[in-house]
Amino acid sequence: MPWFTRGRRRVTSRWPAHPDSYRDTFPGAVTPIDRPGEAVPAEIPAVCPTGAISRDGDRLHVDQGRCILCHRCVRQYPERFRFTIPAPAAHRDLLVVPALPETDDALAAVRAELARRTRLLRRSIHVRHVDAGSDGADEWEVLALLNPVYDIHRLGIFFTASPRHADVLLVTGVGSRGMAAPLARTLQAAPRPLVVIAAGTDAISGGLVHPTYATSGGIGDLIAATPDSAGATGAADGDPVRVDIWVPGSPPTPFALLHALLLAMGRLQ
Amino acid sequence: MTLTPLTADIAVWRTNILDRLASNRFASLFATAPPESDLRLTALLASAGSIDAIDVAVPRGSTSYPALSAVVPAASWYERKIHDLFGLEPLGHPRLDPLILPLREAQPRPLPGQRSAIPPLTPDEAAIPSRVLGHGVFTIPHGPVRSGVYESVEYLVETPGEDIPYVGIRVFAKHRGIERRFEDLDVSDGVLLAERVEGIASVAHALAFCHAVEDLAGVIPSPRDRSVRVIFAELERIANHLDVALKLADAAGLAVAVSRFGYHKERILRLIGAACGSRFGRGVVVPGGIGCEPAISPNALLTRLDDILREVFADADLLMQTPSFLDRLRGTGPLDPALARRHGALGPIGRASGFDDDDRWHRPYDEYSDLPQFPAVSSGSGDALARLEIRWSEIRSSAELIRQAVAHIAALSAPTAEPADVPAAIDRISGRGIGWAEAPQGEVVYVVECDDGRISRCAPRSASFHNLVLFHDVFAGDILTDFPFIEASFGLSIAGVAL
């Protein structure tokens, strides 16, 4: 039987136009359960191997940019933590849930600046992926975006072979120091406007792998640590290159990556 | 190059290894730099039923030792790695270029085992000598950032235009210093890091790490836990093999096949995710047992798996009858059976060339000793097609193994309580343990040394590291457009090579 008879059943998600039950139920992020007036036992933050949990009076905060989803907190303190849908953010501080009060002001400015750059990218984008020291799982999840379930072509999103055609740089990995120079060259080759996405907990904070002698604390650190970062990564229009969108998850789920790409297009808030 | 006289110890060590290689397989070689004492070289040899370590001390202050790879070619990359990490020179090594961490002579080395802080080190490309082979030959740098979504690796393809006389492999861009990161973690955090050594084989790495720890502590997980481990390990194998089929179909430009295998792989990842909350089976294997009960019943899992595999095999059969696809694989990237045997090629790559040393049958762990064996059936032609055929037969045997494991679980009584924490026996262990597991890519070995429950040295060795060096030897007669087929048919992960 030839290939053209295969796969005629619709398997493609309708998200974001319609809800997707897999996206809504997959445990892709951890959020504290607020229990006002109840004291938080002091030993709770120590359950986290990457220090993502902090205590502030009777409130718990989880930094989803540090969480590696080992599920320990949810298993040991099911009344204190629950799973939620991972939400990529346009500001690093937004990954701390519940949000810290000082986040709001900085956020408005960042949103406006990102919107200015993404105005041209609304209809269709080309994405260049760069691995800067991933464990390999992140690449599987990025590749999954091309399978018929996510099928990002339906949304005008394409991967490109050359950084010269890229509107978005999707960077995975802990920020291995050996990738500093190749990443800087890629950034330099890319046109502007450019949106940089740090995909996954490793890329955001270094996760469990950082610190070692060979890693940076994520992609933001790696870009900043490049010796001639001003020259090599500075944009033609004078904007310094920095991470614009942060995608939690270890590795990030395909839906979280898709969400981040739609943020980069200004199609989602 | 003149060899320095062997010190008595190293001479005995070498003779010992060479003697045992008559019946054993060379599995690994690594060094350890314990604080305040001599550097230690450890060779691992795999025999029927076990993997054993043979140690030798390199006296303090020595900067070199006679290379083992002069007599055991399979040790070549291991000694390049030792040179990178310890600055110790194996004299008589055939090609001692930097591999995972190119540094200039004067720079400090990471010295795994030291348990002390070291300054950041940046791989220095200029430390790698460059050479080209002959008249009209030029190099095509392929990576680390290249077309498609790939892990960072640079292949320096030396070519006069079409043929590929030599491929340089540079993996250092991804080096993460993982071995040092293990130090001072406790074993329950150590297994989380092991899952991130090679993310697409998380379960196998967690298994090998836990087997090492359990070996050291003398702990045997419950029968039920041992069966659950088998289920997740085999699901991981199916996902990886589907990934290879997907990438081969992609290389051949078969759009429908790419979509179909992408869809099948997605469904397997979702099945794993539904059972444990992670699409990569993370958090399932912990020292002493399993970290969570499967969230769906084993029988429901089996039903879903059967549904998926029915479609997988229908598409696989069609793929294996598609002439434009088979033409690209047949005779492509052949690995010589004699070389496969001599090198001890692991996993599907070895099996496709007639060399089969599967940890599941030859050194059984967990429930595998109670399960039927499925020795690989291979034409032994060793080309990309043979490697794909091996993977199809492994998917079939994985399904059967899962079926049997589910039956075993059904025969056991249901668990009375949620899985407990790490058993007390493991909490405060000291000493050294060796553990192994058969990943989709082949054997993974971990040597874990602990001091009062804290890891003092952890040396993981993935099948990807052992097999990637064979890439040099499979381009005979192949041309540039065969490259993606050969790369995909190896099915390796660079994360597990560069560590």
UniProtKB/TrEMBL annotation, chain A:
InterPro entries reported for this sequence: Complex_I_20kDa-like (IPR052375), NADH_UbQ_OxRdtase-like_20kDa (IPR006137)
Cofactor dependence: [4Fe-4S] cluster
Keywords: 4Fe-4S, Iron, Iron-sulfur, Metal-binding, Ubiquinone
UniProt keyword annotation of Iron present: yes
Domain of life of the source: Bacteria
MF terms in GO: 4 iron, 4 sulfur cluster binding; metal ion binding
Family: Belongs to the complex I 20 kDa subunit family.
Protein name: NADH ubiquinone oxidoreductase, 20 kDa subunit
Organism field: Acidothermus cellulolyticus (strain ATCC 43068 / DSM 8971 / 11B)
Taxon lineage: Bacteria, Bacillati, Actinomycetota, Actinomycetes, Acidothermales
Automatic annotation (TrEMBL), chain B:
Coiled-coil region list: none
Keyword field contains NAD: yes
Presence of keyword NAD: yes
Name the UniProt record assigns to this protein: NADH-ubiquinone oxidoreductase, chain 49kDa
Domain of life: Bacteria
Molecular function (Gene Ontology), one example: NADH dehydrogenase (ubiquinone) activity
Keywords of the record: NAD, Oxidoreductase, Ubiquinone
One protein family per Pfam: Complex1_49kDa
Domain NADH-quinone oxidoreductase subunit D residue range list: 264-411
NADH:ubiquinone oxidoreductase 30kDa subunit domain span: 31-102
SUPFAM superfamilies in UniProt: HydB/Nqo4-like (SSF56762), Nqo5-like (SSF143243)
InterPro entries: ComplexI_49kDa-like (IPR052197), NADH_Q_OxRdtase_suD (IPR001135), NADH_quin_OxRdtase_su_C/D-like (IPR037232), NADH_UbQ_OxRdtase_30kDa_su (IPR001268), NiFe-Hase_large (IPR029014)
Taxonomic source organism: Acidothermus cellulolyticus (strain ATCC 43068 / DSM 8971 / 11B)
